[in-house]
Structures are given as C-alpha cells and as structure tokens.
User: Which sequence fits this backbone?
C-alpha cells in the first residue's frame, strides 16, 4: 500500500504537470507531433519549464531502479520493470543531452496517465478489506478503475504512442532534420519501450480473460506471486 500511495502521488503530480505543458502553454507537440523537431539544432536552450519536468522524471526513475530491486514487492514482471526503468532513464538523460526534450515531454505524458490509474486502482483493491470489514465502495471503484485502466493503456500506449511519437521520431525527424544525430539509437530504445508496453498489455488481456472465464472473482494484480 505505501508503495502504491507514493507512486500515485508522484505520477499524479508529473502527469498534471505534463497536462500543463502540453495544453496550457504554447507548445503544440500534442496536436502537431512533427513540431517537436521544428527549429531543432545542436546545443539549443532547454526551456526552464521542460527542464524542471526532466529533473523530476530523471530523479524519480534513477530512484526507481534501486527501489524496484531492493524496496518494492518482487513481482513476476520485476525484471522487465528494471529494464523499463533503465531504458526510460537512458531516454530521459540522452534526450536532454542531445536536445530531444520536446518529444520526451510527449512520451512522458502518454505513459504517466496509466500509472496514475494503476496505482489508484491498486489502493482501492488494498482498501476494500480492512479492519476485517468488506468495503463495497472501494470494490466498485477498483472495478471501474480496472476497466478505465485497460482501455486507456491501449489508447495511450498502443495507439497514440505509435501514432504521435513513433511517427514523429521515425519519419518526421528526417523530414525536419536530415541526418539527425543518433536516429537509430533513440528509435531503437523507443521501440523497446513499445515492446514492453505490448508485454504488459498481455497481462491486462490475461486478467480480463480470467474474469470472463470465471477464474477470478475480484480485481487483483495478476503480477503478484501470492495471487
């Protein structure tokens, strides 16, 4: 429970800040993904508001590598989670160094929303049986959260992410900046991230299948060893 509460707090703050950057400033990256590479040049200045987001995310994922290995509950996907944190931290650090920060903000926005829903739903799963008493409200919220999490995972990570981010980095980048540095390096990492998103979506499909076949009567985290 403390693990989920901490992650819910961080991801809520980080995703809210992402909403601010993409929808309440002049950055057009969400509605015009190719614009992340407009006027790109080596050594360009990083806007302060984007630099703050990068500082927060880089510090969080640096901590998460240690936390996943030594602090958090070990799960069936913990090895993949460690790989995810390493890939994410590498993308954050190198995209900042090589001034691909615009696309980085878009990547973080499209991923953080699912973590908000996941940790909020898990908290309600933990809270529905407390003090030896069953709490129906938390059970209902966890069921609704599971449904919205499943849909949004597909929509944000498997639909919008390729449509907006991969399209911009694989195709539009070469149109705006021919011979753009480290093209294959960054796109390879983004493709690895996509494969991990597909891997975790299989857990979601497995969960839904168990519910539909009557093998699971209530919402639980199918990655947990004791479930």
Assistant:
């Amino acid at each position: 429970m403390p693990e989920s509460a901490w992650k819910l707090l961080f991801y809520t703050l980080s995703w809210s800040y992402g909403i601010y950057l993409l929808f309440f400033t002049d950055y057009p990256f969400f509605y015009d993904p190719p614009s992340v590479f407009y006027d790109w040049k080596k050594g360009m200045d990083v806007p302060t508001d984007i630099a703050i987001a990068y500082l927060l995310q880089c510090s969080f994922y640096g901590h998460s590598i240690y936390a996943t290995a030594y602090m958090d509950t070990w799960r069936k996907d913990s090895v993949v989670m460690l790989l995810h944190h390493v890939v994410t931290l590498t993308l954050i650090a190198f995209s900042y160094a090589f001034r691909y920060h615009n696309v980085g903000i878009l990547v973080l926005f499209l991923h953080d929303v699912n973590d908000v829903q996941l940790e909020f739903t898990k908290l309600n799963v933990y809270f529905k049986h407390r003090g030896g008493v069953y709490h129906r409200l938390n059970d209902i919220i966890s069921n609704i959260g599971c449904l919205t999490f499943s849909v949004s995972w597909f929509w944000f990570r498997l639909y919008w992410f390729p449509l907006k981010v991969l399209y911009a980095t694989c195709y539009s980048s070469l149109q705006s900046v021919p011979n753009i540095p480290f093209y294959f390096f960054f796109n390879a990492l983004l493709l690895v991230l996509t494969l991990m998103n597909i891997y975790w979506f299989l857990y979601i499909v497995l969960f839904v299948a168990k519910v539909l076949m009557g093998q699971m009567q209530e919402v639980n985290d199918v990655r947990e060893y004791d479930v």
